[in-house]
Amino acid sequence: MHETDIKQIDVKTTSPYSVFVGECMLDFIKERIKGKKNLILTDSNVFSFHEKYLNNISKDIFVLKAGEESKNYRELLRIYDFLIDRGADRYSRLVCVGGGVVGDIGGFAASTYMRGIGLVHVPTSLLAMVDSSIGGKTAINYGNLKNIIGSFYQPEAVFVDVSFLKTLPDREYISAFAEIVKYGIIRDKELFEFLGANIKAIRDRNDKVIRLLIEKSIKNKVEVVEADEKEKGLRTILNFGHTFAHAIESLTEYKVYLHGEAVAIGMIMALGLSKRLELIDDSLINQVRSLLEGMGLPYRLDMDIKAEEAYEIMLKDKKNKESALRFILTRGVGNSIISSGIAKEVIMDAINEGK
Q1: Which residue among 171, 224, 260, 324 sits deepest, i.e. has the most Cβ atoms within 10 Å of its Cβ?
Q2: Which of the residues 38, 45, 147, 239 is marked catalytic?
Q3: Residue 2: what pLDDT?
Q4: Angle at 335 between CA 184 and CA 214, to 5 degrees
Q5: Which of the four pLDDT bands, split at 50, 70 and 90, describes residue 322?
Q6: pLDDT in tens, 254-288
Q7: Quick check: is 137 catalytic?
């Protein structure tokens, strides 16, 4: 691929870097990261499809078992052992080639090993391309709490090689659109309308449409991150639907719903909560529900989850402030707000309504 076909999106954070979007980017990546000792972190799914690609970057490869269950402190310690065994020093770089799990735990390992080594993300899932690889959030899960231990640590670069999507299973591909729909609801009405007008092209994996959606999503994420790198205010809106979603994932032990699927259900619960507070009416809920359904995403729970248990998990959510639950709600497409002090029974009703 010619470099002229690669889109560069700059991220102006405390440690600035760029996101590069293109196809068949192996040679481009190798050229950009040469000059340091590179070590790869990946997962078993990516390794099975792309072993040759990975070996072209580095022969030092650590393979995690694919899945959210690997995002724990035991695997983190194994990554540290790998880095020590392969002679990684403060001037080395960890190249995370994989989805959100690989990027989250790899980013945390890089941020803490020798107090910080180089980090590069090569996201292979659509969800990681449009969301988790950008912005510097790193984390592992602990107990039944998602992303409760982590850090902010910006990478040196993010390389979005859309060629990886050719081997991405349909369910994982579709699940990522929950995050793209989220961008539309919280801040980008034009994107929201584009999604509604292009459901067939999305389901058919139209290259032009997918590339456009990836770039639009990245720009939305970058603009928010630049304005609020450490999530002290505005960046919190990116968690629309996530307070509910993380509780759903925890209660189902990460074995029932993919992250995007849980976010889709969580967004409908957040919209229900917005309606109960008289911020919106049924029309927007029905519109989003129809969009999610058209894409093949769930919009309600298909199993029984106790609202009380979900509420208790939410009380430990890292977005809370002074023990008060905080939710991202909406007054309409492109108009999101941060709300706290909502009565427990109102929250419980929103959960129960989502079943």
Answers
A1: 260
A2: 239
A3: 57
A4: 20
A5: confident
A6: 999 999 999 999 999 999 999 999 999 999 999 99
A7: yes
- The answer to whether 166 is annotated as binding is yes
- Distance separating alpha carbons of residues 323 and 33, to the nearest angstrom: 43
For the domain with range 170-354, which CATH number is right: 3.40.1740.10, 1.20.1090.10, 3.40.50.720, 1.20.1250.20?
1.20.1090.10
8 Å CB contact between 258 and 347: no
Residue 179 among the catalytic residues = yes
The encoded tokens of residue 203 equal 């389901």
**Arithmetic mean of pLDDT, 26-39:** 97
232 a known binding residue?
no
* 315-330: average pLDDT: 87
321: DSSP letter: B
104 assigned binding-site residue: yes
Question: Which CATH number is 7-167 given?
Answer: 3.40.50.1970
pLDDT at 144 over 90: no
pLDDT at 323: 74
**235 part of the active site:** yes
As a whole number of angstroms, the distance between CA 147 and CA 317 comes to: 9
Q: For residues 141 and 343, give the distance between their C-alpha atoms in angstroms, rounded to a whole number.
A: 28
> Would the pLDDT of 132 be above 70?
yes
Q: Does 231 participate in catalysis according to the annotation?
A: yes
Instruction: Kindly calculate the radius of gyration of the chain based on its CA atoms and give it in whole angstroms.
Output: 20
147 is catalytic: no
Is residue 121 annotated as involved in ligand binding?
no
Over residues 337-351, the mean pLDDT reads 95
Q: From residue 41, give the alpha-carbon distance in Å to each of 115, 116, 253, 341.
A: 18, 16, 24, 41
In the chain, CATH 1.20.1090.10 covers: 170-354
125 labeled binding residue = yes
pTM value surpassing 0.85: yes
What residues does CATH 3.40.50.1970 cover in the chain?
Answer: 7-167
pLDDT at residue 84 above 80?
yes
- Is residue 189 within 8 Å of residue 244, measured between CB atoms? no
Catalytic annotation present for 211 = no
